[in-house]
Amino acid sequence: xxxxxxxxxxxxxxxxxxxxxxxxxxxxxxxxxxxxxxxxxxxxxxxxxxxxxxxxxxxxxxxxxxxxxxxxxxxxxxxxxxxxxxxxxxxxxxxxxxxxxxxxxxxxxxxxxxxxxxxxxxxxxxxxxxxxxxxxxxxxxxxxxxxxxxxxxxxxxxxxxxxxxxxxxxxxxxxxxxxxxxxxxxxxxxxxxxxxxxxxxxxxxxxxxxxxxxxxxxxxxxxxxxxxxxxxxxxxxxxxxxxxxxxxxxxxxxxxxxxxxxxxxxxxxxxxxxxxxxxxxxxxxxxxxxxxxxxxxxxxxxxxxxxxxxxxxxxxxxxxxxxxxxxxxxxxxxxxxxxxxxxxxxxxxxxxxxxxxxxxxxxxxxxxxxxxxxxxxxxxxxxxxxxxxxxxxxxxxxxxxxxxxxxxxxxxxxxxxxxx
Length: 420
Fold this sequence. Notes:
The structure is a single chain. By secondary structure, the chain is mainly α. The chain folds into 2 domains: 1-209, Up-down Bundle (Growth Hormone, Chain: A); 227-420, Growth Hormone, Chain: A (Up-down Bundle). The protein has 14 helices and no strands. α9 (237-267) runs parallel beside α13 and α9 packs antiparallel against α14 (397-419). 47% of the residues are buried. The model has no long low-confidence stretch (mean pLDDT 83).
């Protein structure tokens, strides 16, 4: 396979191998930590979980990406990236240990979320640093391939970390604190792995460092505003429509995820272990939908066009969400998880393609920063709306109907835009 061949070529670069090791360990730890936090909030036997608590946990996990992300580059350009990986992962290991102690101490959720927020906020710097370091460890000819394979490998590592967390929780130790400590150990391993990289190999070059941090941060804010204005130009309406559609579909996916969490916890299972196992199965099936979208979308978007493929994804979701969601039963729930994974990821791939092909190169990075903010804020906003609409057992006909209407509205709006 071409992917295997490309990866073998990249692994010949020592710097790439070592940087990839840091990425895999770091993102694997992220997967463990996120599942551990979700399991504690949703599936602890001694807790009466609410949709509001789930929304708070999602805000802790995702908002740092949105608030810190656009400005992370201004700071990363002032720090040696190898040191960011070393100290960032050491700090996350420490804060993960603190989080484990807080879980054992049964402290108020506010203190627990504050500790978790420190872990997830640092993650934005580590991920941005990993991407910024790639040109320093591979040649220009292979940079595009490296940019494709390295983040994909990190996503798979995070998924594997989540699977490891489920296994530890169900088979080894029925303790969320123990799972968090597994994540802390992986963060520590990532920090130690970074020591194998030369301190100055990953940059940045000191001569290129801006003189004042305040100037750099103000420049980031101006650049984001300029990016939004660039996106609002009439010749880039397709990209603006695609981003709006993707944000609404992400909102729908987030609201359905909160409902699934509540159903797994209360309505569809009798014990917390059964609920955790069902949630793991649902997430795995949704991940299979993501993979199916990666395989199907290049062909479908090539035949239909990226915009029409978004319309197909949202239209299919509008029909299938009520058909599979309203029974509130395990089998339809799992089928719906696959459909939503396929529709959401298929639309995202098509949106990425539209943005990349219609936005000028000088603005592309800024537009994707805006995209990142919209993507995560929509998800957190969905959790907040679901918290207001969901009953204690998670069965909400109005929420399912609302989500179907939003999907349908996206399909209709995209169709009208294409006719214009």
